[in-house]
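Listing 4. Sequential folding, example run.
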Amino acid sequence: MFSNVGSAKETPSQEEIMNKRMAIYIQFQDHIVPWYHLAAIDQYERNIQAVRPDIPKRDSIIAIQFSKEYWAGAFNPLADDTSPLTIKYFGGLGLDGNGDGVANPEDDEDIMFTMSNYLSQYGPTVEDFKIALWEYYQSEQVVNQILTIAKLYKHFDTINIDTHVFPVPVRGYNYSYRGTWGANRGWGGRRIHEGTDIFAGYSTPVLSTSYGVVEIMGWNEFGGWRIGIRDNHNTYHYYAHLSYFNKDLKIGDIVEPGTMLGGVGSSGYGKEGTSGKFPPHLHYGMYKFNGRTEWAFDPYPSLVQWEKYSRQQKK
């Protein structure tokens, strides 16, 4: 029973937790529902629980949680019913996934079996998966985020894709940066600086900090030539003021830490092609999606950690 991990005497390592998650995804996949679809939903639920105080945080291997109405049935007089027979009678969708005769909404195996059964009713294609997600979440943004996670897990054939690196090479190039979050910006109206500026010479390579999928690529009057990448943690990574793009990249492509995205420049603050209105630098921003809205947060603390990690990797 995976749900009893929290009662163990020793706290499991992150590697052990990841292995147990992967094992339960594999256990409940089938020819209609692949493991990476189950894993993507579970990771999305874990992501929003980490940033939403209005959602209870499930302390277990699996993060997915169902409402009592969904599990037991909207007209079930027993909101906490765990009997598969009466749950089915009242139209509930909770199922017994481990054969113990109980449909327990707190049991990881029962939860995963219930989700797998829900998805299997729609069919095996990506389009079927999209429809199932829409019916469940009723949000195009949520559907797109989960599809991104699934795409990454399928491509890399693992859920262990949490490595990050610094967005410019830490050796061989000169660069400097400091915390610039919240500083005033005058061009384009009164606004604050939502990111960190990394100053470097023209054409210094700009690297992907994370695993992710290219979501936006092109011109923006504020950011100039910019690229946006979404990762498996509901985080959107924004790289702006580029001088050029990696010609082999396009929207929808998958990247990994260290993938070359383009070069440092000074583009932006005007119509397409405007450049040179400020010293060359990379504007790096991070935005978090919580299932309802997306907001910017200070990337500086993460950059400090990733710079240290990147330097250690180069030794």
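-- end of first protein; second protein begins --
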Amino acid sequence: MPQKEPSHNSTVFLAKHTEIFKMGSNSTSSAESNCNATYLPFQYSLYATTYIFIFIPGLLANSAALWVLCRFISKKNKAIIFMINLSVADLAHILSLPLRIYYYINRHWPFQRALCLLCFYLKYLNMYASIFFLTCISLQRCLFLLKPFRARNWKRRYDVGISAVIWIVVGTACLPFPILRNAGLANNTDSCFADLGYKQMDAVVLVTMVVIAELAGFVIPVITIACCTWKTTVSLKHPPIAFQGISERKKALRMVFMCAAVFVICFTPYHINFIFYTMVKESIITSCPTVKSTLYFHPFSLCLASLCCLLDPILYYFMASEFRDQLSRHGSSVTRSRLMSRESGSSMVN
């Protein structure tokens, strides 16, 4: 049977709908338009699938970790304070994922624009807070391993103060992300996240922001973690110092290695691509292969950054002996209490 030709009205409707959707997409640079790379439909299913995969396990793991770290660990040294703050940063991003999932499935934002920008802001707040807290965990474990006498005199309030400074600095530094992306879509309230606009910047301001973001948010932390990993590895070859044995060194080495692994897997791809992505948006890079590869890799790099919400709880459980001990003790006590309640109930029946 011959297929029916689409009517003129339906064709006009589809064309109009497609044009409106493309207008709601990221404000495109001339490099994107010239290379025909203005529309990336795969990113919606990629984001939705990634966030669905992260949400439930990440919510349960980080909630349990935060509960155990805060309630069952009285000895808050060995970077436990930094782990608590890292878990809070992950939960802040995880709690915004249902709204992200809704948008990427329906491609429609029915809520207030302020809520969209808040969720967008929490993504980058989580990324850079995680970077700095991972750096602090790695640095502290390394220093305390090499200088155990300093670890004995270290006060909990020092970690609290450092954490407060990190939240203030990171919270302020991440404000430009939603501000720069809240442009070009003033009349399009149905768009959010990947479809937010992009504000063109002055060249001097652009270079300054990129250099600061890359140095402070990536280069300095990655050098610090690499040095801590190397120092901790070398320390295993030296004779044991007072108040610590070889097992303590191995624990510290596993902790530092895990911090490095999370950093490399989650944050390195984004920051390498970030430089090229910014230059594409500003039409500094015009080579079509580079433009297309940069824009196509950008959603994957953001998804990898969100995976830290799943990898960080592994850091708590497998690398912190206090966490494992308290979790096993609490789990065994719950099991014993349940068995005792069942036995008492059965004895009353009999």
